[in-house]
Amino acid sequence: MKASDLLVRALENEGVERSFGVPGEENLDVVESLRRSSIQLVVTRHEQAAAFMAATHGRLTGKPGVALSTLGPGALNLATGAAYAFLGAMPAILITGQKAVKTSRQARFQIVDVIAAMRPLTKLSRSIVSAASIPTIVRDAFRVAVEERPGPVHLELPEDVAGEQADAPIVPPHPIDLPVAPPAALDRAAALILAAERPLVMMGAATSRPRLAGALSSFVSRTGLPFFNTQMGKGTVDRVSHLYMGTAALSERDYVHRAIDRADLIVSIGHDTVEKPPFLMGPNGPRVIHVGYVPATVEQVFSAQAEVVGDVGPSLDLLADRIAGKIPNATALLPLRAEILARIGDRASEDRFPLTPQRIVHDVREVMPDDGIVALDNGMYKIWFARNYRTHVANTLLLDNALATMGAGLPSAMMAAILYPRRRVLAVCGDGGFMMNSQEMETAVRLRLNLVVLVIQDDAYGMIRWKQAVDGFADWGLGFGNPDFVRYAESYGAKGWRVESSGALAPTLERAFAQGGVHLVAVPIDYSENMRVLVDEMRERVDTSPS
Questions:
Q1: Under a CB-based contact definition with an 8 Å cutoff, are residues 82 and 156 in contact?
Q2: Residues near 195 by beta carbon (within 8 Å), at least 6 away in sequence
Q3: What is the pLDDT, as a whole number, of residue 542?
Q4: Domains defined for the chain, CATH in brackets
Q5: 3-state secondary structure 39-78
């Protein structure tokens, strides 16, 4: 068989069902091999979107998604998606083409060093220079992509190698069991928890691994410890919402920090310091137990006094065996919960137009079932969803608090809609982020997805505009114009809606979901609440806090 056939067979061996991307002439052998395979080729309108979709596949399933591009400009268009997967710990395989390596009939036309460009953005970047090595290289790529800490792997296949004849055996995958934390570490952690006066659990980014939901819920339920989460750790625990204290959408001063600041011990499960800090750790801060697959990194704003390193699920079970029913002060911080959640939910039903962020979050929650998936792009609204949107099922609020790139919301939602066609999936995008990959509306329509896209419109780069105001700069340079979003959606064959009153958002979303297919709902937003809640109220809280 050809080397491209061998590559595709190796991908099938890994359970790959789809590949996303924009092929070029250097990929034509691979495209032909895909045509004759069980793998669906999903052509996107930009390579960046393909990488975002592959990464989101890894995030939701734990298995690497696959993205495909040509050489040079196509490969470099994958770079943002590679960084998104790398910082976000999402397994993905990025396959790029290249000119022939044994001849150079086109000199250096379109040739850049893609291997070098991808090296700092991936866990592994290598070129396939021998057809016979394809099975072992592919198997190793998938192994590296999923092992902790997960992330993207880049493979380059030159066009002359792709066309070579090859005959090499496929390497079958096998399960790998991770070690659990040693007894001494578990004993130390148990002693700290039992001695704590005000213990608190934090769910970090790594708790969103699909396999962990049951173990996390069991640990919280058995210990009775109240918990909060980072943005990317949101929604990783279910069935124990009565112990939920809030989400650290900001690094300090928010209402959840009333509990964080009073805690004398934080059990930090799966925290990844690539996230914007959920709290700022100082010399007088709480003691921290790091529970993770790998040892904690030491940062200026985060360091641990004890570590439980190993397979997180089984390690938490063993830790719970030591402390369940024995923690004297397990619920010491729980009396703060009611006020924290009440303040976060303040003005959620306010009848104002344009809509406030709180009202948008409230109405979205109203129409989304417990297992409905909301995929956020990056903008000011992300903070509001992170702190105000209540989740009940793991991985139902997808946001990026690592690279925090604009343009990922729509492709991420599309991937969720492909994986879970019977669940409601909503992309929430600002007008700035949406337009960065809005061309993928055509892809969504072509794939006949059931997907609703909520475009929050303020005709500006709203988060930076807010920062501009907070820092005392003039309101200048961040506004732009927009298309008529209803007609824009219709031009792709989707259905467009425009919200024109405060009470219209929830029923409009409900109608869109009921009809099926691809819909875009444009809603104007009043961002004056940013200053009132996230600046003035935070300052007031600090000023009135007991010293």
A1: no
A2: none
A3: 62
A4: 3-162 (3.40.50.970), 183-334 (3.40.50.1220), 344-534 (3.40.50.970)
A5: CEEEECCCHHHHHHHHHHHHHHHCCCEEEEECCHHHHHHC
**Sign of the torsion formed by the C-alpha atoms of 227, 213, 275 and 52:** negative
**CA 52, CA 376: separation in Å to the nearest integer?**
12
Helix (H) or strand (E) holding 398: strand 397-398
Q: What are the start-end ranges of the H helices in 334-426?
A: 337-344, 357-367, 380-388, 409-419
Q: Can you tell me the distance from the alpha carbon of 141 to that of 477, in angstroms, rounded to the nearest whole number?
A: 44
pLDDT at 384 over 70: yes
Please state, in angstroms and as integers, the Cα–Cα distance from residue 462 to each residue in 42, 75, 335, 459, 527, following that order.
33, 30, 35, 8, 8
- The H or E element containing residue 489 is helix 485-491
pLDDT 10s digits, 514-540: 999 999 999 999 999 888 888 888 777
Which residues are bridge partners to 425 per DSSP?
Answer: 373
Q: Which two tokens stand for residue 325?
A: 């029913």
Cα–Cα distance between 492 and 362 in angstroms, integer? 29
Cα distance between residue 192 and residue 491, in whole Å = 60
Neighbours of 465 (CB within 10 A): 20
| Cα angle 314-317-318, degrees, rounded to a multiple of 5 | 90
DSSP, residue by residue, 246-276: EE--SSSSSTTHHHHHH-SEEEEES--TTSP
Task: Give pLDDT, residue 109.
Answer: 78
* Stated pTM of the model: 0.95
Continuous segment of H or E residues that includes residue 196: none
Confidence label for 281 from pLDDT (cuts 50, 70 and 90): confident
